[in-house]
Amino acid sequence: MQHFVVTGIGTEVGKTVVSAVLCEALKANYWKPVQAGDLHTLDSDFVRSFTSETEIIPSNVLLNYAMSPHEAARLDEIELTEDDFDLPRFSKQTIIEGAGGVMVPLNDEGLCYIDLFQLWELPVYVVTKHYLGSINHTLLTLNALLSREIEIAGLIVNGERNEASERIYYSHFPDLAITTIPELNEFSKESIQQAAKLWIEQLA
Description:
This protein is α/β, with parallel strands linked by helices.
């Protein structure tokens, strides 16, 4: 039973949408250890709404401020440590969504998401999106994971592929598995299911 982590090259690249698509494609459960911001519209609610069989595993930490977890936790008078992020006993395959990128801090002592990924020893899917600067952000993320000997499950492009960018990725990571999920303008169970089908077809 293989679990996967989903991280992004930064904010607003579509990690939650990709997580929903992977949950649908793999018939997996979903866990987001930390959710910060509007607690009435959680990322887990999005995944629950647009997938058919996904069980939502409750987050370990809910923070009230839409900002970096280390500062949101400070404002909520919570101190986060590695002990807060032990992997639950998953009953089936699970997609674990991070927040922001790999170096997003969880406390003022230097704990970042990449430390959790290394602790969990799970393969990581990196979500990217093509924009000016995305090559730099993508390579920095992939190299950060590589430096910690964290397995890279693949690079998932949210939106249209860009051959010029992908040539650079392959020049650094010749064995990198690159797949695409179409950028969705409207969300429904049907659109997530179709994106999941297209993603599975790319693995054949």
